[in-house]
């Protein structure tokens, strides 16, 4: 019997690799003689850089850039092909895990470091830059990133505007004299963890704002502010994934002429996951929470679609919500949450690995009894 174990990271809890190892540990208690292939995945969000760097045997280094709270941080970047291609993960620069819970406000979070990292990649000779834009704490439409690239934002009085989400409505003029000419010659590929649009009820603000600390009462105003900014300067993009990363998808489209690709599809191709699953008996996927967002381009459903109809796909997650039921119609065979009891998030983080091992063992016992 062969199991392919291909989970995404569990947000702020376990990396994809640690999740895969925990799931395997549970299955080994029941199927010690089975064949296992561990293929941790990423979809553009937290942990994607680790996955890609390992696949491509990339050269990794760390760089000092501006962090989410406008203080200097150290973040990773990876290179392949003699530094002709660079990989950047936005979550490592302004991700939710970098912001203390009491300071989470997506309208005040800076994405400047993303633009600074792009500039660094170009300085190193990169001709193509791949950027994962999921798992962020921001909702600024990419203006912080643009400032890092050299764009300047001015208000009606000609004064510089701090490029964060709460100031979108103040921007009257955009100057690009400080942007490096090299940017126009560099291929920017954005890998997104969702297909959501920039604005509207399914856009960046309404769907992802709450998990970043935005109150529901503010969402209509913030969404309108984002729409007004883009409508004024560029037109509202209709490209799927424009709403990823708090509007970073749209920002990279407009400020860096990027192209957008669904992250899980990119990673699946790099992993050659379809080939690995060709002779599998079961595929095990997972993420921190299975919910309505999972069908918007997240890793578990991407894996399920890649092997559709050929092998059962079992999801082991932290928690599951009522709006996840439609995932059964999209390739997921069964979903098993691993959180054992009502708990604080600190307790969930503490017990995440053992909960995953235990749940994986129980799933394996069920499969064995059904043989």
From TrEMBL:
Belongs to the glycerate kinase type-1 family. SUPFAM superfamilies: Glycerate kinase I (SSF110738). The keyword Disulfide bond does not apply. This is Glycerate kinase. InterPro entries: Glyc_kinase_flavodox-like_fold (IPR018193), Glycerate_kinase (IPR004381), Glycerate_kinase_RE-like (IPR018197), Glycerate_kinase_sf (IPR036129). It comes from Listeria kieliensis. One of its GO terms (molecular function) is glycerate kinase activity. It holds the Pfam family Gly_kinase.
